[in-house]
Amino acid sequence: MEVLVFCLLVSVLSSEATVSETISSNVKIVGFFPPNLTDVTWAHAVNSIALLETALGDPDIMMLEADLRLGYLFGSTEEIPIMSHDEPYSDLSFQMFLIAVINFNNKAPGDG
Hints:
alpha/beta; about 15% strand; 3 helices
């Protein structure tokens, strides 16, 4: 199952590929959601590498919620978009978050 993530700020991807070339073209909104929307399952506050890995490893999770703010990766002095609610430091940048979700969604079924 693919995980659906809505992101408002996508210009922080620092690669040669454009966002439209990078984001999986196989994510389909129609048919993704169950008929009863109370059955949608979320992972809440996915603001660290460990929480992201756990959420992506759970086959029941359909949506990710995370907090985005300017801050610093642990050990860095460069201010960048990070995944964090209150703290100015994180081990997960917004770019890392997006790449992990895109890679997860691009895996063929059964790739594990």
